[in-house]
DNA sequence: GACTCTATCGACACTATGTCGATAGAGTCA
DNA sequence: TGACTCTATCGACATAGTGTCGATAGAGTC
């Protein structure tokens, strides 16, 4: 939606230099990929499909991207930007109203997953074979885990949350749970938590894991 | 280890009838597959690799199995049997000593994952493209989830665990967490919980989610 | 010795990937 | 204006994998 290949020369995810006309084609490929990913899995999309969708021949595709994975990585860069923008801000609310803070975090995660469902599913798929995609995923996880770890430590420091296992390890487990529960719910592979309840279920698990009660308050 | 293709005519996972000599070859293929899966991913193993490993030509492979996925499914059948055997029994201990019960459940899950790491990783991979493998995975999940749901409901019924969200939904979330945390720990893709701590971390999350305390007792 | 069934493979058709070399055209400049 | 460069393009090829068809060797009846 907000992709702009002209601003920076962009760190060479396959594309040569950047000059006028070619950017349109690059965008055509990305748009085609995004559209096709909403219909079928990455492995079921051939490079020929992407090329045809963008109105070019298969060899020409390679002028713009090194591979299918390179296209996905560029799509993932957009996601990174949007998430980066959405994530900042809410951190102060933790002090005032912890339950509300965590609910908003989880709801935001849910929204992110829902919005980018098809591209994220493709990232999971491609992660099995592409080291670069795997890298993107672990960087992304690291960001959420770090945020969670800091929040848990802050709550323990002010006495709202009791001590317990290493905060980082809990953060890893809770975020892993989010990933796979939301993935199942949104892609519809059973058994899954119904979409209407998923945030509340996750919230229950997060709160009890962190506070050892489902109703923590700001009163230390 | 305990595979026996002769006992039952086996429900046609690709193999024709069952007669003397061919069973050896079928087993050769399975052994080759299991061995190669410990070195590399399913997508990096060609049917030719399996055929050569079993000392036959590629067309002959198709005499024994419909596809690579069919081989994997037969490998997964072994896993099912072993897990089925390991899982029974422990259920009574829940009344006496809940913490011990859950710790043993989680430790058993950890062991299962560790023992069958390579085959289970292949199942995750193949699940993206094969409906049958996906089916196997969801059946397997269903078993664990049902067990967990029953245990949670039992604890709530006798008053050891407080009421809370639908037991089945919690069971789905907790089992999903297990899957993905153990997967990361055992395959080593960071960020992951260290192998030495993983059972205790999961235990903490399970106990607090179910009991809202990290130290539940049998005293109602 | 004719007949059947298992097990085997060579050869083919198909699909997808990735590369090489030729080339058309737009922009530069001497 | 013509020589020169760079982007963008594609046809044709090489390669690797999958799945099928038809032929056939041999073991076991009868």
TrEMBL record, chains A, B:
Q: Which InterPro entries did the record assign?
A: EthR_C, Homeodomain-like_sf, HTH_TetR, Tet_transcr_reg_TetR-rel_C_sf
Extract the ranges annotated as region (Disordered).
1-24
Q: Which GO terms describe its biological process?
A: negative regulation of DNA-templated transcription
GO molecular function list: DNA binding
Which residue windows does the record flag with biased composition (Low complexity)? 1-11
Q: What is the top-level taxon of the source organism?
A: Bacteria
Q: Which Pfam families match?
A: EthR_C, TetR_N
Question: Which residue intervals are the DNA-binding region?
Answer: 46-65
Q: Where is the HTH tetR-type domain?
A: 23-83
Q: Which UniProt keywords apply?
A: DNA-binding, Transcription, Transcription regulation
- Write the protein's name: TetR/AcrR family transcriptional regulator
Q: Which lineage do the record's taxonomy fields give for this organism? A: Bacteria, Bacillati, Actinomycetota, Actinomycetes, Streptosporangiales
């Amino acid at each position: 939606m907000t992709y702009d290949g002209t601003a920076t020369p962009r760190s060479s995810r396959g594309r040569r230099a950047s000059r006028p006309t070619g950017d349109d084609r690059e965008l055509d490929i990305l748009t085609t990929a995004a559209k096709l990913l909403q219909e079928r899995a990455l492995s079921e999309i051939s490079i020929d499909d992407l090329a045809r969708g963008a109105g070019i021949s298969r060899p020409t595709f390679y002028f713009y991207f090194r591979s299918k994975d390179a296209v996905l990585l560029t799509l993932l860069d957009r996601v990174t930007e949007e998430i980066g923008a959405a994530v900042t801000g809410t951190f102060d609310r933790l002090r005032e109203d912890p339950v509300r803070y965590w609910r908003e975090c989880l709801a935001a995660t849910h929204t992110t997953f829902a919005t980018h469902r098809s591209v994220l599913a493709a990232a999971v798929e491609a992660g099995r074979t592409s080291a670069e995609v795997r890298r993107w995923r672990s960087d992304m996880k690291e960001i959420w885990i770090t945020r969670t770890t800091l929040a848990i430590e802050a709550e323990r420091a002010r006495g709202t949350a009791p001590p317990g296992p290493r905060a980082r390890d809990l953060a890893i487990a809770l975020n892993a749970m989010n990933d796979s529960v939301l993935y199942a719910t949104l892609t519809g592979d059973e058994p899954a938590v119904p979409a209407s309840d998923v945030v509340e279920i996750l919230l229950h698990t997060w709160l009890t894991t962190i506070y050892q009660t489902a109703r923590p308050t700001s009163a230390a």
